[in-house]
Structure formats: C-alpha cells, structure tokens
Amino acid sequence: MNKVILMGRLTRDPEVRYSQGENNLAIARYTLAVDRRFQRNSDQSADFISCVAFGKAGEFAEKWFKQGTKVAVTGRIQTGSYTNKDGVKVYTTEVVVEEQEFAESKNAAAANGVPQDAPHPTPSAASGEGFMSIPDGIEDELPFE
Q1: Average pLDDT for 72-79
Q2: What's the domain range around 103?
Q3: 59: buried, middle or exposed (CB in 10 Å: 19+, 13-18, 0-12)?
Q4: Contact, 56 vs 78, CB < 8 A?
Q5: Are 69 and 14 in contact (CB under 8 A)?
Q6: What is the pTM of this model?
Q7: Residue 145 lies in a domain
Q8: How far is CA 12 from the centre of its chain?
Q9: pLDDT digit string (tens) for 9-23?
Q10: What's the CA gap between 11 and 9, in Å, rounded?
Q11: Count of the separate structural domains present in the chain
Q12: What's the CATH number where 40 sits?
C-alpha cells in the first residue's frame, strides 16, 4: 500500500501549467513545509515535501492555495528519474495528490499572515459536488477552534 497523509504550509504559491492537446489538464506543483514532531539540537525542524496535483485538484490549488496556507493532503509517493542537460541522472520523489483541503479557518490563516481577502471555501463547496457552502462568519459563532 502506498498512502501518504501530510499537513503543512505552502512554501510559495503553486506553480501551475497546462498540458498540451485536446483536453488541457492542469498540473499544479507546490511544496509543503511539514513540521517534525521531534528535533535534535541543530537539525531543521521541518521537511519540505514536493507535491503535484492533476486536473480539478490542480485547478483548485491554482485558485485557492497561496504561500503560507495550511493544508492537509492525502496521496501516494511517486519516484522517478531523468537526465539533466549536463548528463547527470537526477532522482525525484514527490507526492501525487489524491485529496487536498484547508487545515485552518480563515481567521487562523489571517493571523498567520495569509491574506484574508482571498476566499477560503470548503473543498466540497468548491468542487461542485452538491454540498452546501458554509457562510462567512460562522466560524466566529462556534464554541471551539
């Protein structure tokens, strides 16, 4: 079984390209900074995980994800290799995104420096699967965060 679950913050805005051909397919690439639970004296306290989202997931990332956004991602690890222009073989490892969603409220995102004017829909509302949109301001009325 090849299953990955990550939660972290985007290190920069997603880089999105579209495939050539009849059906343009969105391909979004982004890096998540995922905090480590434990750290040694001077070791880095986060891992930087490359993620790639295809199709509707790529379009969603392009529209809604910005640097600093905290997201939860599930997917699978994919490895590969290529030879660069200098003739050196380069090995790659990335997470192919199967599901992605916001991992914090709009208010928490604003407190962490993510612009609040950018709408933060629920993934189900943005995907058009017939779910009701959650109205703005409802988070202020909840007894928990």
Answers
A1: 97
A2: 4-139
A3: middle
A4: no
A5: no
A6: 0.72
A7: no
A8: 10
A9: 999 999 999 998 888
A10: 6
A11: 1
A12: 2.40.50.140
